[in-house]
Amino acid sequence: MSWIREGELNLIEKLSANILKAGPMPKHVAFIMDGNRRYARKRQVERQEGHTQGFDKLAETLRWCLNLSIHEVTVYAFSIENFKRSKDEVDGLMELAKQKFIRLLEEQDNLEKHGVCIRVLGDLTLLPLDLQQHIARAVVATRTHNKCFLNVCFAYTSRHEIANAVGEMAWGVEQGLIKSSDVSEALLSRCLYSSNSPNPDLLIRTSGEVRLSDFLLWQKARDQHREGQALQQHEADRACLADLLQHHGNGKPLDAQRRREALLNYTASREERVQDFLGALQHKRDSFLTDLTSQAALA
Amino acid sequence: MVHVYEFMWRVLHVLLHIHRTFITLFRIRLRNWNGQLWSRALAALLVPIALSFPKQKKLVPAPGKRVGRRYRWGADGKSLEKLPDHIGLLIAEEEPRYTDIANLVVWCMAVGISYISVYDNHGVFRRNNSRLMEEILKQQQELLGLEGSKQHSVEFLSNGTDKQDHQVLSCQSVVKVLSPDDGKLRIVQAAQELCRAVEQMEKTAKDINVTVLDSLLRESKTTPDPDLVLKFGPVESTLGFLPWHIRLTEFISLPSHVDVSYEDLFSALQHYASCEQRLGK
């Protein structure tokens, strides 16, 4: 089954979609695809069939999102916690994922037509190598598309994502790219797997459970207002500068004009440091994927 | 054609508001109606008894009523299949009513919940910490009486308190007041601490994982993550409530904390008791 089900909406669906689009619409919707096994039990089919039908419904949902001009969708496909399931079920899910990513590569024309960019968020190193390679090929192949974005969370939990972001900042400090004083809420957000996406406006969980289950915890927490963040950063810069001058200055206090200039210089150099670090981080992540694709090509 | 769709959207939006208002009014009226019905039924039942037994004692003496309620609340807690160890009260409304919040805290204590957190996304409770504490102590006396207050002692924690573990054993309940600073800001502070350790070569970047971050963000080893958060107000968001700690928290929404009743709280707890957590399995 294809990733985006072809087919137009029927008349009533088209009418409803047009009415909905007349009002405010979310730009980014996140889905927790829950309930496949309960569905399979209810229909008295195999669990694997439940997962397959769950994927089909996802394909339909993506089509609806495209029709409703929702251009960014994030789905929670497989949690790191799900590795606790039986070996059969986990292997079945890995196999299903492999087939879907292979199918995706076969449909590149369709994806190009719709301009779909696929991103996979999570700790890919936890997955079987062949699946990692298929994922890498799919992500690299659709990297340049920019009409709509599908983020698939695979081998993901939000805590791992946050811990990974902190680890990357620590790596930046280790490499001498940034200082520990450069760490801020904004920088942490830019080190997350989902750094290229805006925060989701709406989270939908199927099957009636009312918990987040370790999904997008940072992104769903309401952001401090931009002015608040800018003010905090400004204060942090001042504090760092004061510290620097105390330790490395010549002892003479600066006048107001010199202090302002020094602060501007400090802020500019911090921003340059951060940009270089983010560039290096992006390069590290891209290289990981490119290495996987070249391994796949050689195999 | 676009204007037609816009018009249809506005009509549906108005209908949705009417629907919601109607549901709220109906809920309030039903509760009042039920109350009147019950008191009328009781009066109808009691009048003949009063007439036939003139020496009948007063039916519900005030101190006894408190004891009866306290035992009932405790029994209610024991009757549930599971009770949250840590409950969060998220007030997503503009004007907080301290008495109602204090009532909620006291009912939670009476039902047997050990850890209670109170949160609003503007930091109002944090700034008015002492007022909230006073109100809770007052309502504790009011609702549980002197005996009950002795049995259900409460410990107030403020941010950054280094809670000694042995103190927890002597207290029945722990109340904590939270604000958005306890959320993302705490995570950023922990990240800064870890990066400083790396800068000073006390740690390497590879040492940083979920466990290390979790231990920094866990203020006290004994305080569990919130199992249940009751959200009061119309906003459909967690509003920055402890993002790290709510990974498995059940969220139940209630329309408002104003004039909230014990029955509202208990039905939310019953709903929580029926949830099945599979933890990924």
UniProtKB/TrEMBL annotation, chain B:
Pathway: Protein modification; protein glycosylation. GO terms for molecular function: ditrans,polycis-polyprenyl diphosphate synthase [(2E,6E)-farnesyl diphosphate specific] activity. GO terms for cellular component: dehydrodolichyl diphosphate synthase complex; endoplasmic reticulum membrane. Keywords: Endoplasmic reticulum, Magnesium, Membrane, Transferase, Transmembrane, Transmembrane helix. InterPro entries: Nus1/NgBR, UPP_synth-like, UPP_synth-like_sf. The keyword Lipid metabolism does not apply. Its EC number is 2.5.1.87. Its main location: endoplasmic reticulum. It comes from the Eukaryota. It holds the Pfam family Prenyltransf. It is found in: Endoplasmic reticulum membrane. SUPFAM superfamilies: Undecaprenyl diphosphate synthase. It catalyses: n isopentenyl diphosphate + (2E,6E)-farnesyl diphosphate = a di-trans,poly-cis-polyprenyl diphosphate + n diphosphate. Belongs to the UPP synthase family. This is ditrans,polycis-polyprenyl diphosphate synthase [(2E,6E)-farnesyldiphosphate specific]. It comes from Oncorhynchus tshawytscha. The lineage of its organism: Eukaryota, Metazoa, Chordata, Craniata, Vertebrata.
